[in-house]
């Protein structure tokens, strides 16, 4: 049916942004960060009304539909073969609504790095993730584990409202005052409920950050991981630390971020981290948060084809550290990444948002070359009993049991009831469908 999509067959709101396989820009749009695709058409709506038009056009064409904000999806491919990609990148406005309260509006198609840059002159920031190229829509509908998370919470914890186009073609506001059930669901399971076109957040006042990168000799990987875990848990909540290990290398990399510019306090908070293992290098620098998460807008080639598994943990204790160290040593895991959660994230009641994991301290991500997929899945099965929950954004296992990891029983039941109300026919079922 690819031949069926023509400019003249589209509603007028979508004609301008149509990109077909024969168009020169198609090569830059067909793939995403992790997936290769060959869609029949890429649409670029500019308004919520155009998103509604696109939904009804896609329904009438009966073609697969992918929703794309920044194209960095891991748990879901925001491209397809022969279908329609609804690319929200033109809906990327960032507006400071009230510098006093920090209320800001951010289009779902913005990249987090660009949003940070736009908020910086007002001294405001929303904690997002470690990559500024990640899109606002995909991250803010799932959680948002960021480099200021322990101080300022998950991205969804700053959300005040979302504008969402639901399966019936309605444009709804979801907030504490309007459609509160949808607001609850969007904050952790948003991809199942519609297409968010813009968000309002209460941004934090962030004068800057002190960012430290450290290279450790991680030859004693098991011991190092346990010491790392203890240091992260003991750190003041201004400090959020992410760790990256790579197969075939005993040089581990850490990004340790102090949210604020108090150099003495940052130095004190950093000291325990510098005693964890022999240091191979490192540097500290005060900078605007926007510089930490700058967005290079790297071209998407679909070339990053890692197979990923993920889970949350309360502590990095021996059973976890031994298994993770083993995966890196054997080469099963090409990369191991451990992001700190906890702090302010865990102040939120577990029932307050669809993302319900409010007592864990670590988000663990392992990426393997596709050739090692089988080993990774087997070894992850051995680790699974020691984990406690799952952040879906880093997970590629499509087994429906992952939903039970991601959502506690009562949360999942409530989400399924709401899915039956807002998306009974399963239009938004490409990203861990709640009702398959
Ligand atoms: C290099 C890299 C680093 C990362 N680091 C972090 C990190 O530090 N912390 C963290 O929390 N996550 C991180 N992630 C995971 C990231 O948050 C998710 O992959 C997220 O889904 C990407 O958002 P996107 O808009 O770029 O994705 P896209 O590929 O555009 O979308 C992915 C999926 O999200 C859903 N979606 C996208 N936009 C919308 C929308 N507007 N409305 C409803 N549903 C939508 C759709 O199901 C879509 O298929 C990282 C990912 C990568 C690739």
UniProtKB/TrEMBL annotation:
The keyword Oxidoreductase applies. Pfam families: FAD_binding_4. GO terms for molecular function: FAD binding; oxidoreductase activity. InterPro entries: FAD-bd_PCMH, FAD-bd_PCMH-like_sf, FAD-bd_PCMH_sub1, FAD-bd_PCMH_sub2, FAD-linked_Oxase-like_C, FAD-linked_Oxidoreductase, Oxid_FAD_bind_N. Its cofactor is FAD. Gene3D superfamilies: 3.30.465.10, 3.40.462.20, Uridine Diphospho-n-acetylenolpyruvylglucosamine Reductase, domain 2. SUPFAM superfamilies: FAD-binding/transporter-associated domain-like, FAD-linked oxidases, C-terminal domain. The keyword Flavoprotein applies. Residues 35-206 form the FAD-binding PCMH-type domain. Keywords: FAD, Flavoprotein, Oxidoreductase. Belongs to the oxygen-dependent FAD-linked oxidoreductase family. This is FAD-binding oxidoreductase. It comes from Arthrobacter crusticola. The lineage of its organism: Bacteria, Bacillati, Actinomycetota, Actinomycetes, Micrococcales.
